[in-house]
Amino acid sequence: MESTTSTPTPIPSRLFSTANSSSLSVFKTLITNPPSTHYPLATETTSNIPIYTLPPFSSFSPSQRSALQDEWHHILLSGPGIFITKNLYPDPSLLTHVNEVFDSIIASEAAANVSKGDHFAPPNANTRIWNAFSKHGLRDPSSFVDYYSNPWIPLIASAWLGPAHRLTAQVNIVMPGGEAQIPHRDYHLGFQGSSEAAAFPRAAHAASQFLTLQGAVAHGDIPVESGPTRVLPYSQLVEGGYLSIRSEDFRALFQEHYVSLAMQQGDEYIASRCESLADIECVWETDGECGYGGVDWGDVGGFEGQVWEGGGE
Hints:
alpha+beta, 8-stranded mixed β-sheet, two-stranded antiparallel ribbon, disordered C terminus, Phytanoyl-CoA dioxygenase, PhyH, phytanoyl-CoA dioxygenase activity
C-alpha cells in the first residue's frame, strides 16, 4: 500500500503586507456596491448614513433604548460605520454658554503662548483645546455638569464599548481658509508612521477598532458649503486599513467618493475612531467670525491611558 503525504498548509504571515493591491479592489467594491441594510429606527438614511432624530430620553423605555443600541452596534460593526444623531443637545442656550467657556480657555492659552500640535494637519493651523474635558470642568463646573450629564452619550458609547468606558474631549476649530486633513484612520495605529503600524500583527489591527468610539458635536450650524467632516461609509470594513489608507490610490478614491453632510447646532456624528476614513474640514463663518466646529469626544474601553493624544497636552 502506497503511503501518501499531504502538503502542509503554510503558516500565514502575522503582518499585513504594505503592498497588498487586493485590498484596493475590496475598497472599490465596498464603496461602489455597499451592503444593503435597513435600520428601521432611523429617521432617514442619506448617502448611506443612518440619521436618528432623538426624542427626550425619558420618552424611551429600556427596551426601546436597547433596540437603538442594537442598530448602532450593527452600523459600527458591519454597516456603514457612521451614523448621525440629531437633536442630541436640544437647548441652544447650553451650547452658547459652553462656547463662551471655550472662548475663555482659548484666550488664556493664547496669552500663555501655548503651542498646539494637530492630527493630520500642520501645528497651529487650527484652534484646538486639548483635554477640553478637564479644562472645561475646572473653568466652569456648572456648565460642565449640564453638558456631560446628557444621558444619550453613555447610551451611545455603551452600544459599542460596553459600560466600562471613559470619556475624553477635545475642541477643534478649523479657521476659514484652512486646509482639510488628509484622509486617515484615527486611534490607535493611525497615529503611527507606516513602518511602525506595519510592525503590529493583524490581531492588533483588528482589536484596536473595538477600543474607541468618536463622537463630534456641532456647536453651531455647519452648512455643506463650510466643509463639514468628510467620511466614506463602509470603508472601515477594509482589512489593514491603517496601512492602505496611506497610499495615494486609496486617498484618490476617498476624494472621489466621500460624503459630507450638513449639521445643525446640537447634532452629532458617531464613528468608530479607528474605522472611518475621515477628512475633517469644519470651516465656516458666522457674521464674519469663525464658528465652533464642535467637541470631539472619545470613549475608551478600559482605562484612559489607552488613548494616544498625538500633539496634545
